[in-house]
Amino acid sequence: MMDIHQILKQLPHRYPFLLVDRVLEVDKGKSIKALKNVSMNEPQFTGHFPHRPVFPGVLMLEAMAQTAALLAFDTLGVTPDDKTVYYFAGIDGARFKRPVEPGDQLVMDVTLERMKAGIFKFKGVTRVGDEVACEAELMCTMRTIA
């Protein structure tokens, strides 16, 4: 549905912080499914942890937020410019169910629950295969910067 070139046009993030490799499905205004391939070559694994590489939970939340931003932009029919930043406004009910390791493929399912007064509320679930790795409710907002 959306390859890396299209994602790069939508999200301002770049290496090592772009955490969405491909969008598999978008149901405009409702939901999105995206993936991130976890590779041993990523910089966080040098220190998290040297003897047992584990993908940090906060980066799973960030990957879900980047996926949510892509859904928000699609829902609004906008391509953000250099003056638009998409921020976290809150995270509720974050749960980590399974460690994620190099070689795993994260599939993020994000659903738009509510959009009110510029605040978007999403439900996100990240899986590796059939197993839930992470779930959370995410609140995000867009801001224009000078």
Distance between the termini: 33 Å
CATH superfamily label: Hotdog Thioesterase
Radius of gyration: 15 Å
Largest sheet strand order: 1-2-4-5-6-3
- Name the shape in a single word: globular
CATH architecture: Roll
CATH class: Alpha Beta
CATH topology: Thiol Ester Dehydrase, Chain A
Helix content: 10-25%
Structural class: alpha+beta
What does this structure look like?
It is found in: Cytoplasm. Belongs to the thioester dehydratase family. FabZ subfamily. Involved in unsaturated fatty acids biosynthesis. Catalyzes the dehydration of short chain beta-hydroxyacyl-ACPs and long chain saturated and unsaturated beta-hydroxyacyl-ACPs. Its EC number is 4.2.1.59. This protein has a single domain (4-144), classed as Thiol Ester Dehydrase, Chain A, CATH 3.10.129. The chain contains two helices and six strands; from the N terminus they run H-E-E-H-E-E-E-E. It has helices at 4-10, 57-76, and strands at residues 22-27, 31-37, 84-96, 105-116, 119-128, 131-144. The mean pLDDT is 96.
SSE blueprint and pairings:
Blueprint: H1 4-10, E1 22-27, E2 31-37, H2 57-76, E3 84-96, E4 105-116, E5 119-128, E6 131-144
Antiparallel strand pairs: 1-2, 2-4, 3-6, 4-5, 5-6
